[in-house]
Amino acid sequence: MIDKKHIGRTTPPQTVDVEKGRLKFFAKAIGETDPVYTDEAVAAAAGYKSLPAPPTFAFCLEMETNSLWDNIAAMGVPVGKILHGSQSFKYHAPICAGDRVTFQTTISKIYDKKGGALEFIHEDTTAKNQEGVLVAELERVIVVRN
Asked: What does pLDDT average to over the chain?
């Protein structure tokens, strides 16, 4: 069983650069056809300072930090036993190419089901841009198979 003492554990802030090429590649990979995500002139006409990040791209950026791996290691959970349970996003401001986004993750819940056969770890992450503006809140649920 994962020790509940880890509830409240917060990772150090970690910053990731948002690159134009990666945004275009991600938009193409998810089948996004709106040119606001690939054409800078269209993005500017729509009021963005640069290409905006497509929906769910914040998760990709957050995965570049070590928060998940740091938390898993600190709790002594074998990587081979984890599954991605769910994720959700709450956006507050656009994330755009050229931004530097800083993520900080806190373990908010740990509980089990099925007599301990499955354990659940809830992580809440804040994402702030280089100006300190909260751009997104992410929630991830990790399932541990015992």
From this structure: 96
What is the SS3 assignment for 83? strand
Write the secondary structure of 48-63 as one string of H (helix), E (strand) and C (coil).
CCCCECCCCHHHHHHH
Render 85-110 in DSSP notation, one character per residue.
EEEEEEESS--BTT-EEEEEEEEEEE
Q: What percent of the chain shows pLDDT beyond 70?
A: 100
pLDDT at 55 over 90: no
Domains of the chain listed by start with CATH number:
4-18+53-145 (3.10.129.10)
What residues contact residue 86 under an 8 Å CB cut-off, 6+ apart? 139, 140, 141
Question: Angle CA(99)–CA(103)–CA(108) in degrees, nearest 5?
Answer: 155
Statement: residue 46 has pLDDT above 90: yes
Q: What is the pLDDT of residues 4-19, one digit of tens each?
A: 999 999 999 999 999 9
Exposed/middle/buried for residue 90 (C-beta within 10 Å: 0-12, 13-18, 19+): exposed
